[in-house]
C-alpha cells in the first residue's frame, strides 16, 4: 500500500533556487549599451525604495517595470524576449530532477518575479506545467513609442548607467542615513521615474505592469492555498532574494517552512533554514522530509545535518545515495537560522551565492 501523508504543498521562487539566471539583468545587459551598469543602479534604487524608504504602493521587484520603457526604446519586442530567454536558460544542476521528484510527492508551484516569457521558457526546460506558475505578465508590443521618446529614453539610459552605484548603509531606516552623493542619485532617479517618464505615452507601461514580487508573491501563495484547500502551515516556501521577503515572513508566521537557498541577506533575514548548494538535490531532500513528516522534522534534520541524520529521518534512499555520490566528503552547508548566527549565515550564503551565480547577479537584491 502506498504511504499517504497529510496534504502539504511546495512553493518556490524561480531564479536562484531553480536557475542561475537573472533574466531581467541579462536581457538589459544584452539590449541596452552598458545595460549591466544601468540595471545595477536601478536594482539598488529598487532595494532602497522597497526596504528603506518604503515608498507608498512600491513593491520589491518593481525594477522589472521600471526598465520596460528603456527596453522598448532599444527595440526589444515580445518575440525577442521569448527568444532570448529560450537560448540563455541556465539551470542549477539537478533542477529538472528535483522539480519532477517534488511534483511526485506534493502539489508544486513556482512563484516568480521573472517576466512570463522567461518563466515559460524555464517550464519547457524542466517539463513543469506553466499553469502552476505565477510570474510577471508584460506585453511589450502593446505600447507604442515615438522616436522622440525613444531618443530621450536612450539618453536617460546613458545617464543612469553612468551614475554612482548606490551603497545602502547597514541597518539604515531612512534616506537621511545615505551619503550626500547617494541622496543626490536617489533624487535624480525619483525625477526620472516619477516625473519625466509618467509624462511620456510610454510611461503607461509602468502603470500597467504588476511584477510578482514582495506582497504580490504573498498574495500568489495565498491564492495557491485557496486553490489547494490548504493553509499556510502546510506550505514549504523556498526563496533567495528581497522579492521573497514578504512571502517568507507570511509563511513563517503562519507556521509553514521557509528556506533560503543560496540567498542574500534579505532572504536569510526572513527564512528559518539557510542552505548553500550548487546542486538542487538539497531542495529534494528537505521537501521529501517535509512532505512525509512536516516542518519540525525538517528543522531537526537541519540541526543534526549529517549522513547519519539522512538515514535517521528516513530520507528517500535514492536521494541519500545520490547526495553521497555528489558530496562524498562533506554534505552541502545547511544551518538553522537564529538571532545569534543570522549575520554569519548571511555572509556565508552571500559568498556562496557569488560562487554559484557570479558576482554581478549575486550582488543584485
Any overview of this molecule?
The model has no long low-confidence stretch (mean pLDDT 94). The longest helix is centred in the N-terminal third of the chain and has 19 residues, at 35-53. Helices cover 53% and strands 9% of the residues. α2 crosses α8 (147-161) and α11 (215-228) packs across α12 (245-253). It folds into 2 domains: 9-21 and 91-114 and 127-135 and 212-362, Rossmann fold; 23-84 and 139-208, AF1437-like domain superfamily (AF1437-like domain fold), CATH 1.10.3870.10. The chain starts with 8 loop residues before the first strand and ends with a helix. A 7-stranded mixed beta sheet has the order 3-2-1-4-5-6-7, with helices on both faces. The protein has helices spanning 23-31, 35-53, 63-66, 68-73, 78-88, 95-105, 116-126, 147-161, 180-196, 204-208, 215-228, 245-253, 265-270, 281-293, 295-303, 307-312, 317-326, 342-357, 359-362; strands spanning 9-12, 108-115, 133-136, 235-239, 257-261, 273-276, 333-336. It has 365 residues and is α/β, with parallel strands linked by helices.
